[in-house]
Each structure stands twice: as C-alpha cells, then as structure tokens.
Amino acid sequence: MDIWNVMEYTAWGLSIVFGLYIVIDWIKTDSTYSEEELMSSREGELEAMTEEQQL
Amino acid sequence: MSNTDITSAEMDGMGPKGTKLGLARVLGPAHIWGLGVGIVLVGEYMGWNFAVGKGGAYAALLACWFAGILYSCVAMIDSEVTSTVAAAGGQYTQAKHIVGPLMAFNVGLYLVFAYTMLEAANAITFGFLIDTVAGMTGHEGLDQRPFIILSIMFLAWLNYRGVLATLTFSLVITAFAFCAIIALFLSTAVFMSDSPLRHVELMTDLPYGWLGVLAAMHFGLWYYLGIEGTCQAAEEVRSPARALPFGTLAGIMTLLIAATLTWYVSVGLMPWEYLGQAGVPLFDAARLSGSMTLMVLLGVGTMFATLASANGCINDASRAWFAMGRDHYLPDWFGAVHPKFRTPYRSIIFLVPIALVFALGAPLDQVITFSILSGLLGYTFMPMNVILFRRKWPLDTIKRGYEHPFHPIPAIILLCLCGVTFFAVFLGYGSQLVAMLSFYIIVSLWFHFWRYRFVRRAAQFTMPWPRPRGY
Q1: Where does the chain cross the membrane (chain A) (predicted)?
Q2: Rounded to whole angstroms, how far apart are CA atoms B58 and B52?
C-alpha cells in the first residue's frame, strides 16, 4: 500500500467526519430551537434601517 | 424604522419585521471580489481553451473580448440593481421585485442549477487533478471518488460553519491563483532572457473563418462565467451600496486582465491544434516554460482555482435556494438560519447530495453545458430587468449605490450578445438547449398552477420603495 492508497482512505475518512459533523449539528440545532425562531429571517432589513426613501 | 436600533451589539441583524435570526452582515468589498473572481478564475485555468479548438487562436481572443463586453454589461447592471435590492437571492430577488413571481421562480432555478452544476464540475476536476498528480508520481489507477466527495464535503462544512471564514478562504486562494497567472506572464514575457513565447511561429489565420469565431463564443463565456455570483452575498455585506458595486466591478476588471494574459501566454507556447483540446492549458504552459517554480505555482493555482470556484458555488446556490424558501416559492423549511453560525444551513445541506449525484454520476461536458445554459438564461433576463427597473423607478425616485452609465446601451448590447451566444450554443449543443428549455417550461407550469398558491403574496415585497411609476 503506497502513499496514494493511504490518501484515498484518508479522504474517505475525512468526508465521513465532515458529513457526520454537519448531520449531528443539524439534528441538534433543529431539536434545540423552535421553528419559529429558525425561520424568522426577513428580507429587506438593512434597506428599511439605513436607506431613507420617500414612501 | 424608528424602533430599530441598528447600533445594537446584541441585536445584530434584527430587522423591523420580527427577524430574530438573520444572516450575518460581516463581509467587505474584498470578500465580494474573492467570491466573484473565485467562482470564475477556474475558467482561465481550464475550459476557455476549447474556444481555440472551435475557431483558432484569434477566434478565442475575439470571443474573450466579446464575452468581456457581455460580462462588463452584466457587472454594471448587476451592480446598480443589487446595490438597491440588497437581499440574499441576488437576481432572483431582483426579478421578484421588478418583473414578477414567475420570472423570479425561473431565475432562482437558473441560479441554483448553474451553481450546483458548476460545483459538481469543479469537484470532478479536482478529482482529475489529484489523479494527474498521482500519475506524475508513478501511481496508476487512483480512485478519484474519495477526493471528489471530500472536496464537496469539506467546502459544505466550511459554508455551514459561517460565511466569513468561507469567503476569507476563497479570497486567499483566489488571490494566490490570480498572482500565479501574473507570475507566469511576467516570467515568460518579461523576465526570462530567452523568452519561450513563439507567437510569430504559432499564430495562424482563422482556420474555420468567421463561423469559427461564432462557435468560439460558447466557450468564450468560460473566461467570466459566474461573476454575477457576487449578488448572492448582498444580505451578508456590511455596506451593500458600497461593497457590491466595488467588489463586482473590481472583479470584472481583474478577470479581463487575467483572461487576456492567459490567452497571450498560452497561444505563445502551444499550437492552436493542441491548445484547443488541452485539459489544463495554464499548467501545460508552465511546463513548457521549463521552470519548475512556475510548474508548482500553476499546479497549485489550478487546484486552488477549482476549490475557490466550488466554494463560491455552494455559497451562492444555497443563498438562492434559501431566499426562495423564505418567500415560500419552495417549502419554507429551507428558509431557516443557523442560530450560531448564521448561515442558511438547511439549504446548504439539501444541495450537497444533489452536487454529489452529478459529480459522481454525470459526464463533465454535460454538467458544464447545463451550467452554461442556465447561466445564459439568467443573463438574458438581466437586460429586461434593468430596463423595467429604470422605467418603474427612475433615478430620481430611489437612491442607488451605483448608477451604470449609458443606459440602455449596456442592456441592448447584453441582449444582442446573449442572442449570438444562444446561436453558438445551439450549433454545438442544440439538443441540450432544447431539453433545458423544456425543463424550465414544465417547472414554470408547475409553479403557476400549483406552487404559487403557497406564496405569501403581500409579504414577499419588502423594499421600502415608492410606488412604481405608472402604477
């Protein structure tokens, strides 16, 4: 087994680690916070706050 | 407006309409430059050279400049509209406010498809590059799949964890890749005492005449494809009115320089017959220069350009998907923001398996073609968008971060060049073009007859603009 075979296995391993991190954090986040809070983002915040348009 | 404290440290991102969690406003103009140029620069390292194969070296240069005009128009128009419609979703949000829901739905899909396909293409290329390096060290039969998957998973993880680190990463590796092109040009054209460039011997007339120039336009897009992606960061920049035009216009200038230098060096080192089908032309150019330093520099530059492009694509596709979810154009579940990382985490997660399927199961040329076609459909929408924008809200009615000059000339030029490019694409990929258009017609019917009933029609128009002229 040469260095490239080792790198192949390392790449598989790291991919699994990154994937698991994302999935575990996703489940943890969804179970900790309410849907209302997670989806409370609204568009157009900065414009309403800083622009001074004539309505 | 009056009851919102925009200086509050605890309430960062909170808006006047009940936002508890918003995307983090942490980016500056340099990140916008890194995002735009990062998505595109891989096209200088590979892909643009197929234009040489279609019509010879001069045809590729003409395509480079015509496409440069096309994308300069795109950058100017985008800078004006996005500095005013500064929200995630970019052109999707512009279409929603200026044209209408059906156009917005289509533009949103163009964006997601263009970026997700490009991400998949970059991952395939990354696997190919690793395989090439392994081959150069004498290892045969490398399994590319773990490297393709790793590139997507690592960048998805980075995007999931926060936009500042993601786009700072893009900025650094993009700057490196751009400097590598400059170094290649300076070394071969200026500093080497015996310059290896052989333009006099290698340049020929147009081998396929002017039809070759037309055909070259298809791949001429590769020099700049994706610069419009800067708009997707509109909701995450500290100052949209300044950062978006500055980053986008600096980006297109960078790309015009990089594209011309790339063409100049490559056609001076390789005959057009070889260059027209080379896999990694800039790396080949570095090898032909005879300098090991340049070889390493351009090899790393190729790798970085590929990663920067995939990184920017994940960022942009997820913002477009997120914005559509937030407006209920898609299930609102996608409109969630991570409470800690302040990223559209569900949209990022959802697009990962789609990118993996295309990266592992589809041929590279088909993936790239679908990406180009979706991008081209998006560019065709832009002239109409800006003409309507100026007509409904003339310059004296809305304060803009940037006003593009000579309106409507850039819009008309863009529309004409899009028409020429559609014809060029039709010459080579007619069936894919028809398939793509059929797909968008079918999903448009689905949106019109089914999905639109779920859209909160009054809530989707958020800009504090005056009533459009004529309404």
Answers
A1: 6-24
A2: 8
pLDDT tens string B361-399: 888 777 888 888 888 899 999 999 999 999 999 998 888
User: Which range marks the domain in which residue A36 is found?
Assistant: 3-53
Cβ atoms within 10 Å, residue B232: 31
How long is chain B?
471
The answer to whether B251 and B32 have CB atoms below 8 angstroms apart is yes
Q: What's the CATH superfamily of B29-454?
A: Amino acid/polyamine transporter I (1.20.1740.10)
**pLDDT tens, position by position, A1-55:** 789 999 999 999 999 999 999 999 999 999 999 999 999 888 865 544 444 444 4
Sign for the pseudo-dihedral over CA of B177, B183, B189, B195: negative
Name the token pair of B271. 């005959």
Helix, strand, coil percent content, chain A, rounded in steps of 5? 75, 0, 25
Asked whether the beta carbons of B243 and B170 are under 8 A apart, the reply is no
Residues in A 5-44 with any Cβ partner in B closer than 8 A = 8-9, 11-12, 14-15, 18-19, 21-23, 25-26, 29, 33, 35, 37-44
Contacts of B339 in chain A (CB under 8 A): 29, 33, 37-38
Q: Tally the C-alpha atoms within 13 A of residue B367's C-alpha that lie toward its C-beta.
A: 23
Q: Is A20 exposed, middle or buried (0-12, 13-18, 19+ CB in 10 A)?
A: exposed
Mean of pLDDT values over B159-174 = 97
Residue B27 β-bridge partners: B237
Q: For residue B86, what pLDDT is reported?
A: 82
B326 in contact with chain A, both atoms CB, cutoff 8 A:
yes
**How many separate domains does chain A show?**
1
Asked whether this complex has an ipTM greater than 0.90, the answer is no
- What does the radius of gyration of chain A's CA atoms come to, in whole angstroms? 22
Q: Tell me if B35 sits within 8 A of B230, measured CB to CB.
A: yes
Q: CA B75, CA B231: separation in Å to the nearest integer?
A: 10
Segments making up each domain of chain B, as ranges:
29-454
A44 exposure class (CB count in 10 Å sphere: 0-12, 13-18, 19+): buried
Q: How far is it, in rounded angstroms, from Cα A55 to Cα B467?
A: 8
Whether the CB-CB separation of B421 and B376 falls below 8 Å is answered with yes
Helix H or strand E segment including B40: helix B29-40
B181-191 as b/e, with b when 16 or more CB fall inside 10 Å? bebbbebbeee
Question: pLDDT of B133-146, one tens digit each?
Answer: 999 899 888 999 99
Are B278 and B48 within 8 A, CB to CB?
no
